[in-house]
Amino acid sequence: MATIRTRKQSDGTVRYTAVVRIRTGNRIIHQEYKSFAHRSAAVSWAKHRELDLENPGKLLQKQHSAITLAQLIRWYIETFETISKWQRSKQSHLQFLERHSIGKANVFDARADIPMVDIMEFAIASARRQAEICRLARRDNDSNAKIGPVGDAKPPTTKGGNHRRFEAIARPF
Question: Do the beta carbons of residue 18 and residue 46 sit within 8 Å?
């Protein structure tokens, strides 16, 4: 529940401080403050922050700004293992990712380097299979001729060894 505090400044102006607190029982687990010149702005900010912090992921992000993938996987296992009865393979995959070097990566930083919108647009425009797209490397592309290689493109009649080159097209979107 948000609280709006009124403070009178030494110069006679009034400032409004919005306080947003998230509690578990009697314990405060998260708290934010922000001051405004107008009461309506303070009330609006407090409502938006309360709605935003209702999402458990946002609250975790706020509490642990540098959360790693391993910590997030451990939280997922501890929270949902007893609720959803998953099989041994899912458990072993989660534990593998938790122990792997990617587990040390910061969760919002790990995604920042992957241009997903560009990859999705390319997938739609090129009609390539996921495995073919994942094998592509920028260093293999010829930017002058605007062509790139696709290794082991899957033809309908044979398997493997079908190396193709594709022509780059303008962005369709």
Answer: yes
In a domain, 20, yes or no: yes
145 lies in which domain range?
Answer: 116-167
What pLDDT digit, counting tens, does each position of 1-21 carry? 789 999 999 999 999 999 998
What element of type H or E holds 62? helix 56-63
Look at phi and psi of residue 4 and say left if phi exceeds 0, alpha if psi is from -120 to 50, else beta: beta
In the beta sheet, which residues pair with residue 4? 18
Q: Is 114 helix (H, G, I), strand (E, B) or coil?
A: coil
Q: Radius of gyration of the chain from Cα atoms?
A: 25
Question: d(Cα 110, Cα 40) in Å, to the nearest integer?
Answer: 38
Task: Tell me how far the alpha carbon of residue 138 is from its chain's centroid.
Answer: 24
**Structural domains counted in the chain:** 3
> Is 148 strand, coil or helix?
strand
What is the pTM for the complete model shown? 0.38
SS3 3: strand
